[in-house]
């Protein structure tokens, strides 16, 4: 990996951070998937059309599809809770005078930005146009983010995982079943709807 490099007499190179080196090793999730033939894609579209009928046609099937999606999300949530993720440090102070975690606010909700690996963080740095800067981060267990960091935010807060990866990313909003009930935005309603 290159550092500040360059001889005193020779041409000087621009300093690079390690994140820039990781960025060169990574591709976006879409680029990793092999190209499919148009015929196969057409067959998948037909199959998908059969699975995505209007909700009113088959109410029993609709309920089972919703239950299946809930189970899939529960598996993803459990996996996230057990997995250490990278959480970049922000510029502002956190509790006890240390640097806080990198966050983004959207629609009145704060999201702690987390990344599954250094390549995902590199894609985020490139998307922000900040690949050359040094990114300090902590490795934190997903459960600790949801159970400790989210309540400590003091505002409605969730976690955004791999936010530069589009549909490959994941959002864990501040609702019951994901964050502690006392900080969930839907806790008082009893319906699961945001108040």
Explain how this protein is built.
This protein is of the alpha+beta class and 195 residues long. Helices cover 36% and strands 18% of the residues. It is built from 6 helices and 7 strands, in the order ααααββββαβαββ. Helix 1 (18-25) packs across helix 5. The relative contact order is 0.14. Mean pLDDT is 75; it is low at 1-17, 25-56 and 191-195.
What's a quick, concise take on this entry?
The protein has 195 residues and is an alpha+beta fold. The protein has helices spanning 18-25, 29-32, 38-51, 59-82, 118-127, 142-152; strands at residues 84-93, 99-101, 103-106, 109-114, 137-141, 157-161, 170-172. The protein starts with 17 loop residues before the first helix and ends in a 23-residue tail after the last strand.
Tell how many strands the DSSP assignment holds.
7
Helix content: 25-40%
H/E topology pattern: HHHHEEEEHEHEE
Can you tell me the residue ranges where pLDDT is under 50 for at least 5 consecutive residues? 1-17, 25-56, 191-195
Let me know the average pLDDT.
75
Largest sheet, order of strands side by side?
Answer: 3-4-6-7
* Main β sheet profile: 4 strands, mixed
SS field, number of helical segments:
6
Overall SS class:
alpha+beta
Report the C-alpha radius of gyration, rounded.
21 Å
The CA-CA distance between the termini, in Å, is 50 Å
Inertia-based shape? globular
Strand content: 15-25%
């Amino acid at each position: 990996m290159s550092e500040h490099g360059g001889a005193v007499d020779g041409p000087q190179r621009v300093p690079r951070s390690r994140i820039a080196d990781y960025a060169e090793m990574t591709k976006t999730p879409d680029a990793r998937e092999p190209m499919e033939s148009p015929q196969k894609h057409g067959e998948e579209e037909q199959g998908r059309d059969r699975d995505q009928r209007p909700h009113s046609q088959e109410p029993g099937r609709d309920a089972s599809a919703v239950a299946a999606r809930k189970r899939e999300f529960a598996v993803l949530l459990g996996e996230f809770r057990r997995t250490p993720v990278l959480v970049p440090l922000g510029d502002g102070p956190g509790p006890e005078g240390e640097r806080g975690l990198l966050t983004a606010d959207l629609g009145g909700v704060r999201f702690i930005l987390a990344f599954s690996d250094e390549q995902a963080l590199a894609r985020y740095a490139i998307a922000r146009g900040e690949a050359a800067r040094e990114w300090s981060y902590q490795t934190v267990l997903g459960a600790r983010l949801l159970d400790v960091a989210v309540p400590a935010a003091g505002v409605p807060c969730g976690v955004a995982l791999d936010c530069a990866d589009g549909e490959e990313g994941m959002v864990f909003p501040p609702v019951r079943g994901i964050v502690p009930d006392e900080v969930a935005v839907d806790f008082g309603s009893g319906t699961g709807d945001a108040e």
